[in-house]
Every structure is written in structure tokens, then in C-alpha cells.
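Posting for a labmate who doesn't have an account.
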Amino acid sequence: MSWTPDSLPDQSGRLAVVTGANSGIGYVTARELARRGAHVVLACRSRERGRDAVERLRTEVPGARTELRVLDLADLGSVRGFAECWSHDRLDLLVNNAGVAMVPFSRTADGFESQFGINHLGTFALTGLLMPHLLAAADPRVVTVSSEGQRFARFDMTNLNAERRYRAAFAYVQSKRANLYFAIELQRRADAAGLRLRSMAVAPGLTRSNVLTGGANSTRGRAYGILTRLLLRLAFRPTPDGAKTSLYAATVPDLPGGSYVVPDGPFQLRGEPALRSRERAIQDSATAHRLWGLSEQLTGVRYPLPGS
């Protein structure tokens, strides 16, 4: 049976942050959470695009409780500022959606290769800095958007930051593998500390969004833009379908912590949300542990978890 946003339980009383919520999967995730009654904070890099998204959301969902806060995962100063300015008494749900994909080589404000720096390190730092607010909630949940492409990563701990040759596709799937390692390791540490926190990872499947055509990819030339848009239209599914796994992981009441939610079709490219446990990264706790330590070292963020 098809799982749709109409299947979402009532979200009234929940306070959620969705990163990268001005477009694509992030926007749909924020909109549907708000439609079911959640108070949703749209965390966006561009204030202007974020304002447009808030206005659009309030038009589509009259009476929605939503607000905009600026967040740039490519700048740890911005990440710290976002967390320091948090003014609510708790945070029930954090959806780590924002990211970049297969962009030309560049460095973040802190000198990290952009895909590793934004997709993983920015997400790692944000979650850790918001952890006190998550732990103040009765049933906190963190959802981190990975990718079906992570299955093809050759995870190289010695080249996470493009210390050697840079290949955009390789760096992308490696950063998405890091997202999965992070989500599962966070659950291991929460369980070891006896906390109620639930950490999930999701893969959206092939989904139409501007991640391949916007941002740094918008400068790759007219031919790239035309061919990529054609590919998106022909081979990728509509954005609301891609948001299903995020919404499922964020709202299904009895979903266990450490779940990995993927489309149930061939190669996880399309289909309905389903749990996937037979992934190398889920079982590889040694690499996840090493990545956690490196991430703490690079970001300067240590999680306030007992025994962590």
C-alpha cells in the first residue's frame, strides 16, 4: 500500500527544525509537518529564499506555525550562532536535510572540502550543539538524510577531506556514507547513556530537486544545466515522493531508534518507505567510532552524552 503524508499522525505540540527547508525535500518535509500541527523552524542558508519559503508554506497551509532562522552548514560560526540563539525550551525533532551534491571542488569557511564539510561535519556539529535542547524534550528524534548512493562509497578515512585527488561523485557518496555512520553511531551512544533519544537515517531515492542544478552547480555551464534538468524530468520522481522517507522516520510512533528508512523498490531508487538493516555501514561500528572521534576533533564539538 502507498504511504502518503496523509498517514502522518497528529504533530500538534511538536517543535521541529528542518535544515535546507527552502526547497526540495526539505520544504516538503517542513510543509507536511506544519500541516499536521507541528511548529516548524525552517533553517535556511539564504534569508531571502527562506522568507519566500515561509510565505509559500503559510499560503499552502493557512494557520501554519512556522518561523525562519538562518543557518549555513558551510560555516561552523553560523552553526554555533544558530544553536546559541535557540530561544525555545526544547527541540522535539531535528531533520538534518540540508546538503550539496557532486559540486565542483571548493572549501568551506573552515577549510573543509565542501561536500564532507557541509553534508557531514556541519550536520555533526549542529546536532551536537542542539543536543541539550533535544534532551530537554520528552521524546526527541533526529533524522539524518543520507542517500542510496552511499552503498557505492569506498570509505577512505585518509581522504575524507580531499587530502589527495578530488572526484565529485566519490566525495559525495562518501559524505552520504558518513551521514549513515553518524546516525547509527549517535543511536549507539544514546543507548549506552540510557537516553530516550532516537536517531534515524533515511535515503530518499531518485528525487527531483535543485541539489544538482542550484548552488555551486549553477555555474557549470548551459549544457550541464540542460542535460541535468532533462535527466531529472525523465528519471527522477516528484519531490513529495522523495520526502516520504524523511516524514516516515520523523513521525511513525513505534519506529525504533537506529532505523534506516529507504524506498522499497529496486536499488532503493523509488518505492514506499521500508526499514533496511542489511547495510555495511550499519554493522561497521569500528569505522563509525573512528569517524565520530575525527569529527569531534575537526569541529571542536563534543556531545553532552554520559560516557561519550
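Reply:
Got it, the C-alpha cells are right above this. The mean pLDDT is 91.
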